[in-house]
Amino acid sequence: MNLSLVTPVYNEQDNLPLLFEAINKVMPTMNRTWEVILVDDGSQDNSLAVLNEYAKKDPAHVRVISFRRNFGQTAAIAAGLDYAQGEIIVLLDADMQNDPADIPMMLAKLDEGYDLVSGWRKSRKDNALTRNFPSMIANRIISRVTGVHLHDYGCTLKAYRRDVLEGFRLYGEMHRFIPVYAHSVGAKITEMAVNHHPRKHGKTKYGLERTAKVVLDLFTVKFLISYSSKPIYLFGGAGGFLMVVSAIIMLYLFVRRIFFLVAIATSPLLQMSAMFFILGFQSILLGLIAELLVRTYHESQRKPTYTIRTMINLEQDPRD
Known about the structure:
By secondary structure, the protein is of the alpha/beta class. The protein is about 45% helix and about 10% strand.
């Protein structure tokens, strides 16, 4: 299998016929073996019945996964990735705001040597106040914190080489951070403007609360990417800083006592200094415990701390 389209579906019964029409218009022209995996995320309308109908019509290309209940977009994408067989994987939404007609151009970008092509909804057709503006702020924060500079993390339409999607699992609402994970294993990433259409049927599944979730998820992503293999740098650095602050406060109290005869015991700075020292020491100990957990994690799963792009004249896994 050369190409897998992975599409999460949630209450999109009216958009699905349009989606299949667009896919069947584009895919046969590309001279690639392909499949489309549609993951019904516990839809409460007739989406699953529509998916079953199209799966019977085209069993060679259409695969359907149905969840028992709504688990969220990230879980639906993760399930699609688990069962996808293609060397190249394209993610797109089922609401027809993404345009399957952009897929050939994205694959052409991959052929230029990129590992990931991220869609950018440059002319986005959503509410400017409740969707576009919060998304713009979130994209800038994510780019600044992670160092992966993309205009549009929230655009589902992205094309990946399979090998950059291996080695990590998706949890919570982490699907929008896939480019960050891919970058962490050395993926070559580019971005291209894609079409974006106003929603014709149904209603959006996201609101302003999504921005808060993105910011909270960003803490997790930053930790996993930057400190998962060396957590002592984070906890030890914070602990060392607190202990230095404690020492500075104690030095200040000592100077006041020697030269200005100001009592130390009655100053609230003494309690602050002691608290900072204790917190700093505990943070360092927490970092050491995290180091032990990291080693247990890697060694118990035989998970390496590196990723390999290619091997020459080597096939045997050195761990076998």
